[in-house]
Amino acid sequence: MTVLLIRNVRPLGGAAVDVLVAQGRIAALGPDLATPADALQEDGGGALLLPGLIEGHAHLDKTTWGGPWYRNAVGPTRMHRIDNERAWRSATGHDAAARSLALARAYLANGTTRMRSHADIDPDIGLAHLRATLRTAALLAPHLEIQVVAFPQSGVVRCPGVAELMDVALAEGAHVVGGIDPCQIDRDPVAQLDALFGLVEKHGKPLDIHLHEPGEMGAFSLDLILERTEALDLRGQVTISHGFCLGMIGATERDALLARMARMDVRIATTAPAASAVPPLAICHAAGVTVYGGNDGIRDSWTPYARPDMLDRAMHIGLRNALRRDDELDVALDCVTVSAAHGCGFADYGLVVGARADLVLVDAETTGQAIVATPVRRLVVAGGEIVARDGALLD
């Protein structure tokens, strides 16, 4: 494996140091490091050094990235989008393997080295999308580590056989149990949560539930999820994706839910959408709840927006939460770095000796400038190997 010495870089905008990489890990950080005889040397030129970026909530299997433009004429509700997507997949023979690989490679070129991606499971496609996403994960390992979520986009209870398909998916290597809107989609929260938490217990894998439900409905579902999390002692094993209700209910009820989430280390994955209520970042942090970021869908039948660039997503998180000061922008960066590593359970992370050598160099004075300017990635190192230069993935 390559021994790599990168000279003259500024970790998170601090003083200039050299970084020595060996055996895929950070071996040393400091000024004027000695050069091993077999080392490949890179001049960082005073660039800003970031840890590998983390995408905490993606849908690789849905994207049209690298393919024809999708002309969106879908109706306004979530069920319109779900039904439209199923019809579009059937009509076009959507190639989840090719498209997911194209989008994942674009993420890697932009410095994302770890990711959690949901993969649809429903009666129409069975496990095809999940298996395609697992293949993408295998092809890009060890440079891009992808956790795959077995995700019942159309519901669990309302779609007979989906719970059984999820059971098979988890046995075949899916990393996380997925769920969605127990009240609004399945209209039977007890039955959905029985199925999901049963799979968590059977396979010993974490749970990540999409919770779009508004207001009191969402708070009710969240209460049920927390009740089971506490009863089964699943501390650190549950993520609430979106959690729009936390930005809609009254402060007293919200704060009580956040206190329970903090006690059980239940995390929040936010995509910071412009048109929906979002969990208030500062209040969540003050309560001790981990919040991390993701793009959700990118150029698919749901949305034409977003880019496979986690600095860009950090900017959206900053905008949605009115973060303006440089120290506040550091909080936005944390959502796609350290908090995302904790939230998804990625180990050996960061700019510290012994961590996996996932490094991103950008031409920026500060982390705040890197977020708002989203400069081309000068160099991307993943698992100790140079994988991208000047925004282009290397062969």
Topology:
Layout: E1 4-11, E2 17-22, E3 25-30, E4 40-51, E5 53-58, H1 78-92, H2 96-109, E6 112-120, H3 128-140, E7 145-151, H4 162-171, E8 176-180, H5 189-203, E9 207-211, H6 215-231, E10 238-242, H7 251-263, E11 267-270, H8 281-287, E12 291-293, H9 310-320, H10 326-334, H11 338-344, E13 359-362, H12 367-373, E14 377-382, E15 385-389, E16 392-393
Helix pairs in contact: 2-3, 4-5, 5-6, 6-7, 9-10, 9-12
Give a quick set of tags describing it.
395 residues; 8-stranded parallel sheet; 12 helices; alpha/beta; Urease, subunit C, domain 1; 2 domains; TIM Barrel; 8-stranded mixed sheet
Can you give a write-up of this model?
The chain is α/β, with parallel strands linked by helices. It folds into 2 domains: 4-52 and 350-393, Urease, subunit C, domain 1, CATH 2.30.40.10; 53-344, TIM Barrel (Alpha-Beta Barrel). The chain is 35% helix and 24% strand. It has an 8-stranded mixed sheet, with helices on one face. It has an 8-stranded parallel sheet with strand order 5-6-7-8-9-10-11-12, with helices on both faces. α7 links the parallel β10 (238-242) and β11 (267-270). α2 (96-109) packs parallel to α3 (128-140) and α6 packs parallel to α7. The longest helix is centred in the middle third of the chain and has 17 residues, at 215-231. The chain is globular, with a radius of gyration of 21 Å.
Cα radius of gyration in angstroms: 21 Å
**Which runs of at least 5 residues are low in confidence (pLDDT < 50)?**
none
| Global mean pLDDT | 97
Order of helices and strands: EEEEEHHEHEHEHEHEHEHEHHHEHEEE
How many structural domains in the coordinates?
2
Question: Terminal Cα separation, in Å?
Answer: 17 Å
CATH topology of the largest domain: TIM Barrel
Beta-strand residue fraction: 15-25%
The overall strand count is: 16
Number of helices: 12
User: Structural class of the helix and strand makeup?
Assistant: alpha/beta
Assign the CATH class of the largest domain. Answer: Alpha Beta
Q: CATH superfamily membership of the largest domain, which one? A: Metal-dependent hydrolases
Main sheet: strand order: 3-2-1-4-13-14-15-16
Please bin the fraction of helical residues. 25-40%
